[in-house]
Amino acid sequence: MPEVRPVVAVTLGDPASIGPEVVVKALAGGELGAVCVPVVVGDRRVVARALATTGAVLEVVPVERPGAATGKAGRVEVVDVPAYGIDAIDWGRVQAPAGRAAYESIVVAIDLALAGEVDAVATAPVSKEALRAAGVSQIGHTEIFAERTGTLEPLTLFETRGLRIFFLTRHLSLAEALRQVTAARVLATLRGAAAALRTLGVAAPRIAVAALNPHGGEHGLFGDEEEKELVPAVLRAREEGIDASGPLPADSVFWHAAHGRFDAVLSLYHDQGHVAAKMYDFERTVSMTCGLPFLRTSVDHGTAFDLAGTGRASATSMEEAIRAAARHAFAVRGRTA
Question: Residues 8, 117: contact at Cβ < 8 Å?
Fold first, then answer.
């Protein structure tokens, strides 16, 4: 019986960014067809422009919906999402039409996944400024996916070379993120992280909580958040059967996780976890949104407007995002190949 490959919707991201370029470069290699059936979702004129810019060679097959895809090397189906004003969009700058085009493609990809026509979604980068200029109320991908799917508390997970990092908070000012470091929120996130890891195949997850203050606060000497908020949350999680540890100093906990002591680390704010992952392997870090009805993965980098239109952007992170979507798609859906 032939192996069934998951169908992965791949969005183009902001059409003025490197997103379309890294998508076509990732798919032109042909290797991804061995693990999934990739289906591009976006304006096919943007795909054509990216192919011309990069010199990548792909046979583009426009379709109304996925279904006849074969994953054949050098060939990709495109669910065309025509964008208003697309011909006037310039490479490399924030533009409202680009934000609108990115948003509409994301919505189509989500709806395809909700309808079961694709098994997972992999996204190229968007510009938060362009989304805002286009009148989109959500600040980014995670918020769009959460609202469209009715998911109350989606979790962000970074994965790179075996290092996994969950985030308590992400797109907040540092001051606001610190206010959200509460025992209740940490406990809820530990519960969600443990459930997500089990879905991804980690039978007995070991999760470390990164400390907020230097040296883990030194028992209140450098701050009392550890004693007041983090320790109670960890103790309660352990009472519930979650193998949680910490809080452990943030300057070493990621190293321990990368060397196998823990299956994941809970980072308390955006840069705490992003710096660790990207220093470990910038190009191969993949972002996953857990807790949705399906898996969404993404590149770990931004729009790189300074590189857009040059054809020089690396497609490694996009390739890794699509591979991760293919690897975990069926497990998140609760089915087997």
Answer: no
